[in-house]
Amino acid sequence: MTQSLPDVALPPPAPTPTPAPARERGAIARLSRSLRGLPPAERWWGLGCGGLAGWLQRSAQGLAGEDLTARFMALLTRVREGEPVLPDAAKRYQYVLVRGMLGDELPGYLLDNVQRLERRGLDVLEAPVDTEGLLRDNVAVLREALLDAEHFGRTVVLVGHSKGGVECTATLALYPELRRVVRAVVTLQAPYGGSSIAHDLATTPEMRRLIDFAFPLLFHGVSRSVEELSYTSRMEFIRKHPYPAGIPTVSLATSRLSRLSSLYPLQRYLHDRYGYASDGMVTAVDAEVPGAGVVRLSDMDHAEAALRALPGFNRYHPGDITEAMVALALDAR
């Protein structure tokens, strides 16, 4: 006969503590969390920008400019040897430098460019543009800078890197009467015809979702500023507002495909997918402003004209590039 056990009230189970949510330290952690919801990589890319690079050169507006590469290299050699290359008249002008995309976020960006011109005794102003802002807003900033210069009897040389070069040319396209204030324009690696990387980011839905999330969060920027550099947006803008003829302008168009470059993955992406020669952000053919004198280099990435690299990883110094390009621009007619 089995003996039944008396009913004994068991103590309630100890409550399981609710774990505290893991802290996401800053914007990078939040960005990483957002990546988990993206689809597999093979679905990211869509149609892309195949066949669009160089569209402007193939159009009626793609006026071919003079190839100034040989003259540039001769000037660059003299600059590196410490010889003066700027004309005496260079000190009559004010030099307005315009940063490109994310320029406010990168330590040392355009620092060597500014310091080189200042060491040559030139009056230099960095335009207070929002480097992650919209084109029209930054054009308004440059317009005010030109009107201020005119008020004080100054003539301006505009020098813009990357997106900054697009904003320099857009200011004169939207306000052609301001050419009276401008002695010359220098564009350094500007995606005048559009940026292949920006186009793919803006037109691929999953990647667009990423920049819509990351740009405001990480950089307090406007994601539409990336879309403005796509081929579609640049086509529309240029057809409505072509760059005025007769303004002395020189453009630096570059490409590189080297594992020593910090932008090698992007260079390789554009090369392998489309066959484009690029500096990692802009294809060489899209950096040429119609009618401008052009310097074409095949061994420079998109950072080298604005940021100093570690020794052995590049062939150019931003200050040397700027001094030689300005000398070319002041010699242009």
From TrEMBL:
Top-level taxonomic group: Bacteria
SUPFAM superfamilies assigned to the protein according to its UniProt record, in alphabetical order: alpha/beta-Hydrolases
Record field: compositional bias (Pro residues): 9-20
Region named Disordered: 1-23
The name this protein goes by in its record: Lipase
Species of origin: Pyxidicoccus parkwayensis
